[in-house]
Every structure is written in structure tokens, then in C-alpha cells.
Amino acid sequence: MANTTLTADIVAKEAVMILENNLVMGNQVYRGYEDEFSKNINGYEVGDTISIRRPTDFTVRNGPVLSSQDVVEGKTSLTVNMRKGIDFEFTSQDLTLKIGDLSERVIRPAMIQLGNQVDVDLMNLYQQVPNWVGTPGEVVNSYADYAKAPERMDELAVPTAQRSSVLSPSDHWGLLGSQTGLYIESAAKGAYREGSLGRIGGIDTYMSQNVPTHVVGVKSGTPLINGAGQDVTYDSVKNTNTQSLVTKGWTNSVTGILKAGDVITIAGVFAVNPVTKAVLPFLRQFTVVADANSGASTGPATLTITPAIIISGAFKTCSASPAADAPINVMGTGGTGYRQNMAFHRNAFALAMVPLKSPPGAVEVSRQSYKGVSVRVIPVYDGINDVSKWRLDILYGVKAIDPRLAVRFSGSP
Q: What InterPro entries does UniProt report for this protein, alphabetically (predicted)?
């Protein structure tokens, strides 16, 4: 193609396609909420929000007698509050290059950075995920290690379709090495020659350098439940699915006794199948969604946890309410960092990327969308230095819509 003067439209069209192609986590999560935002053709501002209904649930009647149940629906919201951008300069000579030349030199590196940022923000939603299998700190280096994630998902009635997983580089290569010795030709060939894992155990498997490291809180002391009867009703927590848990026995007066994202279990509180409500053979895991500090004297600390402790009805999450003085266990070693590999159903998380408003006074603005990805490009000409300065912006929001559908996982000794 002959050289041509590049415009904001040409640059934006190239940028949005490259950005979409460089999303890893972003292409595996739910994207349907963008349709709700797309009703505003003039674009959006930071802070715009849509409301999302949480799924309802029911119990099964036994016998012929009608037993009507209330339909209880919680609500949550998704806010597009993440505005990110990259700015660069083109000379007038640059703007007469082929778009392919300029794409490789400038646009592609910029879009890789933005794509990484979107994936980082999505991966950081791990803090909302209560389920964590394996031994923190151990590398996933066998099929048995990897299988712990889908096994836990099956136990918790997560739909088997549209499952994905994202592993850190060390876990990816650890698992890859275990596949090279297989007698299954296609799997061994892909692992050995291409460095590809593909689909394992019904899960599309990806590697990302953006898998975050979670550092466990100080975690010192001998934590216990402070008072029995700390269960709640679904109706009281239906919009947040969080509750306060009163504890004691931590080391006195410590800042950061637990960190957002820490996972705890409580002795005697078992998980239940969310469909059948049958008690499962492992303890219910809870994630702490806000940093917690301990007080003086008896080391008290009030934790904000999810899921809420609900012991009856259609939304039952636990086998029983915690007993007074029940011991609390925290996953991992205090002050230690662990990579947060995740396996998840598409509906566990959501990404909504929407077109930004076209600002008044801007002479040339291009907003392009491709497969749910939106990019805005605005050139600003510096006539004194004969340089075109370009700003490239994206606006999006991320949300853990149903973290029950996700599992963090580590390897085993």
C-alpha cells in the first residue's frame, strides 16, 4: 500500500485491534455488560455505573403440598472508573509512513502496555475469591496439581462450560514440563515443541506475567471466634454478600494482622453444595475483603469476609454457624507472598470497556470499537516544533460478579 497521511481514524482502528488481540484475562471474562453502556452514543465519563442483579436461588419442595418461596434478588453495580492512556509524538514525516510501519514502531508497544494494565486490574480481583486449593508457595508441576482447581469447581457446582485458567510463568512452565513425557502425541508435541498447554481438563489454559502476588498479613497470635451465633440472613447481605466477623486472640495491637485477599477457615464450619445444600468434606473458605488490625488486651479484630455465613435456606453457604472460641486458620505464612493462579467460569468476573466522551473543543477525535474494546484517539498539533502529539485513552471497569465461580490454586509438595 502506498504511503498516505495518517489520520486519527486510521491510528485508532489499528490501535483497537491490537489492544483486543493482546488481552489475555480480558478475553476470558464476561463482556455482555458493555451492551448496557452502549446505549449512550455520546460516550461516557469516569464514574458512570450500571446496576446488575445477582442470581437468585431456591430450595426444592418435598411432597405435593405447595410451599411458595419469596424471590429474593440482590444487586451490585459495575462502574467504569478506570481511565488509562498512553501519549506519544509523531513528526510530520512519521505521519506519511505506512500504517503497518508505524504500528510496529509505536502503536503495538503502546497497546501491549495498555492490554497488560487491563489484565492486571482483572487479575487483582483475586482478592474477592474465597476458594484457594493446593499449598501456598508450591509450583503447579503436575496434572494432579492442576486438577485440584477443576475438582473444587465441580464440588461447588460451577458450570463446566466456559472455564478458563491463567497461570504465572513459573507455574505454566512447571505444568508444561509435566506434559512432555505423555504418551498422548498431540499433548506432548504441543508442550515440547510449541510451549503450548491448550485445553486441559475441560479448561482453556493461559499464561500471563500479570498473575499477581498476594502477601499474607502479619497473621500472628492464636485467632479464635469471639462469640457464637455470627451467622446472617441472605436478605441482610444480598447486595454485598459480605459480613463482619468478630474475632480475638491475635497478637495485641498489630497493624495489618490480615490483608485484603487473605483466606481463612473456621473449625467446624464446612462448605455446602450451592445446589443440593449437601455438606461437603472440606471447610468453607472465606476471603478477607479489607485490611484488618488487632486491638489491645485480647487481640480483638473485626474482619470483613465473603461469602457471608448463611446456615439455612436457598442461599445457604455453610454447614453451621461458628462456635464460640472456634480456631481460625489462615492460608499461607504471615508476611509471605504467593502467586495467585486462577481457574474460573466466564461469569465470575466482568470487564466493560466503553467509548469515552468526545471532549468539546477537540478538532479531530476518533473513537473506535472492536469486539467490545473501545479506544479514543486525539491528536494535538505543536506548530512551533512541527510535532503531532497524540493521546490515546481507554475507559473501563472490572468487577467480581460471582466469585463463587472462581478458584485460586497452588501446587503441592
A: Phage_coat_Gp5
